[in-house]
Amino acid sequence: MSAALLIFFVLAGLAVLGAVALILQSHPIHSALSLILVMLSLAGLYLLMGAEFVAAVQIIVYGGAVMVLFVFVIMLLNAGEEERTNFSKLATFAGVPLALALGGVIAAAIARSSGHLPAPAANGALTPTRELSKLLFSEFVYPFELTSFLILVAIIGAIVLAQREN
Amino acid sequence: MNAIFAQYGFLIVATVKIILLVLIVLTADAYLTWLERKVIGHIQARWGPYRVGPHGLLQPLADGIKFILKEDPLPEGVDKKAYFFAPFLTLMLALTSLAVIPFGPDITVFGYRTNFGIADINISLLALFAITALSVYGIALAGWGSNNKYSLLGGLRSSAQMISYELAMTLSVVGVLLIAGTLSLKEIVEQQANGNLGLLGWNIIGFSKDHAGLTQIIGCFCFFMAAIAETNRVPFDLPEAESELVAGYHTEYASMKFAMFFIGEYTAMITVSCLSTILFFGGWLSPFPASWTLTHYVPSVILVPLGLWVFFDGIRYETIFGRIVLPGIGSVLTLLGLGLFAAPAINELIQGPFWFFVKVFAVLFFYIWMRGTLPRFRYDQLMDFGWKILLPVSIANVVLTSAFILWRMQG
Amino acid sequence: MVPTNYYLILSAILFGLGVLAFVFKRNIITIFMAIELMLNAVNLAFVAFSQALGKTDGEVFVLFVIVVAAAEAAVGLGIIILTARNRRSLNVERVDLLKL
Fold first, then answer.
1. Between B122, B127, B130, which is nearest A64 by CB?
2. Scanning B147, B299, B395, C83, which has its CA 20 to 30 A from the CA of A96?
3. A7/A72 same-domain check
4. Given a cut of 70, is residue B243 above it in pLDDT?
5. Confidence band (pLDDT; 50, 70, 90) for B1?
6. Residues B299, B291 contacting (CB under 8 angstroms)
7. Which of A80, A97, A119 is at the close of a domain?
8. Are A76 and A146 contained in the same domain?
9. Are A12 and C43 in contact (CB < 8 Å)?
10. Confidence at residue C98, expressed as pLDDT on a 0 to 100 scale
11. Which structural domain, as residue segments, surrounds residue A132?
């Protein structure tokens, strides 16, 4: 087994472990920690694939901003253990098979299409950040500007929501 | 032997460098606490630590022994996972962040060329920001896990503060990135040597070859302010404001677990000082143009008088132990200075690390100076300052810098 | 080198687990986290495809997804705080009126 494959299996194992723990933990802050584990191992996988900029952004934005916001809100609301209600059981009966079926369908589709996929680049070279930024600011400049507008809307929305009426 | 070294050389060198760096940084942390107490003591017209060893030089050692031997009680009702995980996370991230910092130019030792630092990667600046971005979890989890209202308030404050100031910190660096055109800390330093102007080429003054007059002094100010807030130091030390929150997020921690937070905080201070040195003060570059070869003897010129002063000051010390130790340190420093004078090859090798150390020391001294001088912000003032002053000013800096670069490119 | 398929299968597993968490959990914050997990799974597939095809476009998409996720988190958590304040519960089943 090559080193890359070994690293892949370790990181993939951590990611799946984190995702399973997200479901099994009953306290939201433990779920949040599990999700952070998933995000960090995904960042590791991006590095393994050579997408270093995306890996760094993944940690900075997801790990350092979005999840901190989640943890902050959990602490602010002093959220306790999750309460179980009757409806949860129905969700278990109907939801688990459906989710598994969905996962199965996607996995089957991927497994069937494996022949059509080109082999990955064998050199393991890094995606140059410069190339990424050139693409972002030339071909994708309109979507890029749109995202800035989206962020503006989100900021205003968050402020309006957080404001207390008085 | 050579064959093994050729195959595993990288691993061996990296391991040795990591062990060395951790040892050096832990010692530096210990003596940083000594320096801090000494300097603040003198600012407040006290002596600071004086009892343990001459001039209190063995105080860090005594503190270390105290940390190890103290009882480590487990408070009732803590969230055990978070409570135990938090100090480890803080210390681990603080030490990891030093891995990407270049302390000097690439060096060749016994024919083996290596970088002066542990990892030399293309996106080292982003990697550093990624690691520091995670360090907020240590404090947030400690605050949450302790099951204590003061801890929780400290944790809440710190998460809000760190998210707010991270934005300003990242944006204040963009100006430097625009000038350098790279995310690698090593190349950012090398770019500041362009034009061979010494001090004038550093980003804070900005007369390097391509971008004459493009000063980053605003960026430097924003970065430094945001960095102080990120490391939770005075005047932004609200997460652990002892007059309001007992000790903030680490109220419930004692013994080694508290020591981990402590070491983490001081290591973060060192990291931030290194980073501001690299980004704005030319990293390991000497303040004189590289062509002035006479200035290569500055380390000797500083070390020899310093050693002589320590020597002659030390022989008059009150205790006998001090009368032996202090002149000893003084003579070692003097001999080191004379040795550098006598061995030009080694002198060349230490030029980079010497200037790096001097600059980092200056920044750290400034940190301590601020702690001795300034009062603490109120919480709403802190948020106002971060969002209404620091963030707009750093965005303005980005706009100004890019406009200037555009103008230079066209003109 | 790791075959692209492995990444895609991992992405599918993570997405499935995300759906599972979305259906299974009752806490509104955890449900929101499940959405983030699904977005992450999709990002992994994007990067894997981009590396397999040797094009950078996929990575640009990932950046967009991350931006959208960040914006979504800001607004969504604002809504969650408001709901929790008004209904004094984080259980989604207690949020069954068409008003706050």
1. B130
2. C83
3. yes
4. no
5. low
6. no
7. A80
8. no
9. no
10. 67
11. 128-166
Within a domain: residue A50?
A: yes
Q: CA-to-CA distance for A155 and A152, rounded, in angstroms?
A: 5
Taking residues B186-196, report their average pLDDT.
81
| Other CB atoms within 10 Å distance of the CB of residue A78 | 9
Which is nearest to C47 in space by CA: C30, C63, C25, C26? C63
Q: Is the domain defined by C4-90 classed in CATH 3.30.450.20?
A: no
Give domain limits for chain C: 4-90
- Residue linked to tokens 């472990």: A17
Mutate which of B78, B92, B100, B122 to test chain A, going by most A C-beta atoms within 10 A? Answer: B122
Residue A103 placed within a domain: no
User: Can you give the CATH number for the domain in which A65 is found?
Assistant: 1.20.120.1200
| Mean pLDDT computed over A38-46 | 91
What phi and psi values does residue C87 have, to the nearest 5 degrees? -105, -5
Q: Is B159 on the interface with A (CB under 8 A)?
A: yes
Amino acid at A134: K
Query: At A13, is the pLDDT very low, low, confident or very high (cuts 50, 70, 90)?
Result: very high
Q: Are residue A1 and residue A72 in the same domain, yes or no?
A: yes
Rg (CA), chain A: 20
A43 vs B33, B246, B363, CA distance in Å?
35, 38, 33
Residues A29 and A105 sit within 8 Å (Cβ to Cβ): no
Domain count, chain A: 2
The residue from A46, A80, A114 where one domain ends is A80
**Residues in Cβ contact with B83 at an 8 Å cutoff, skipping those fewer than 6 apart:** B74, B141, B142, B145, B146, B252
Along chain C (100 residues), what's the average pLDDT of each consecutive run of 10 residues? 81 86 83 91 89 83 90 88 80 71
Q: What is the pLDDT of residue A122?
A: 46
Rounded Cα gap, residues C7 and B177, in angstroms: 33
The pair of structure tokens assigned to B351 is 């030029």
Residue A52 structure tokens: 């270093």
| Distance set, CA C20 to CA A81, B294, C33 (Å) | 19, 70, 12
In chain B, what residues touch A43 (CB-CB under 8 Å)? 130
Is A45 domain-assigned? yes
Residue A119 lies in a domain: no
Of B134, B140, B159, the CB nearest to A63: B134
Spatial distance between the Cα atoms of A79 and C89, rounded to a whole number of angstroms:
9
Q: What is the pTM of this model?
A: 0.85
Q: Is residue A15 very low, low, confident or very high in pLDDT (cuts 50, 70, 90)?
A: very high
Any chain A CB within 8 A of the CB of B224? Answer: no
Find the Cα–Cα–Cα–Cα dihedral A16, A19, A23, A26, rounded to 10°.
110
Token couple for A83: 């309460």
Query: What distance in Å separates the CA atoms of residue C5 and residue C73, rounded to the nearest whole number?
Result: 30
Yes or no, beta carbons of A49 and C51 under 8 Å apart: yes
